[in-house]
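does this look right to u?? adenosine-5'-triphosphate version
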Amino acid sequence: MAMEDRNVIEVRGLNHWFGTGDARKQALYDLDLTIEAGSFTVLMGPSGSGKTTVLTLLGCLRSVQDGSVRLLGQELNGASEPTLIALRRRLGFIFQAHNLHESLTALQNVMMGLQVHGGIPHRLAVRAATHALGLVGLSDRVDYLPANLSGGQKQRVAVARALIGNPALVLADEPTAALDADSAAEVVGLLKRLGSVRGTTTLLVTHDNRILERADRILVLEDGRIVSDTIA
Ligand SMILES: Nc1ncnc2c1ncn2[C@@H]1O[C@H](COP(=O)(O)OP(=O)(O)OP(=O)(O)O)[C@@H](O)[C@H]1O
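got this back:
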């Protein structure tokens, strides 16, 4: 396999700052990180250690200021907006707050995950969304509005929305924080299955012990530095 196929993420000498002038503060220091395709990696660390900053940089949601970030074989530092948009389409995002549209059904919410791809015929989008909801065990809830779903079910709809475009990389920020033990286990099980079946890579920020024990690798950030990197 070519290097870019095996390593979904290659970070070298990544620094990041917030603010300007006297308020300028360094959030990441000289980060190096390689993540292989199909792996399930957990990123941990105290509040303010830089976890969200890493996730948003890798997700092409903020610009790389200094250092190199190669994502799916493409350099993000200095990348053009069209390149970043094309890369974002290959990512799936899952956040703690599920961010579902309250006026749309589960099916319609999942179909929103295909919108960025554009031009997909409605009939195919419905079929793909129905399939994705089946994957997260919600085949019998496709026509429900979020208000009529439990917290765990809503988060599973968000997972289906993130997965519908068959992303190469899933970036998740505390996806199980609002879930009961069974739903959390289901979400983790699903992401791990996708890793082995489709080669989907997952990088997940969490403090949830239920997830840690199932991770392939655990990275710990402290004050903007990786202080521990454990492979299970
Ligand atoms: N938009 C911003 N403007 C200024 N400083 C910021 C901004 N975002 C983050 N920071 C600072 O950068 C550092 C890292 O923040 P980050 O949100 O990445 O940490 P985190 O590990 O995700 O924390 P938490 O677990 O609380 O979400 C912190 O010192 C934070 O105050």
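Residues 40-61+90-231 form a domain with the Rossmann fold fold (CATH 3.40.50.300). idk if thats expected tbh
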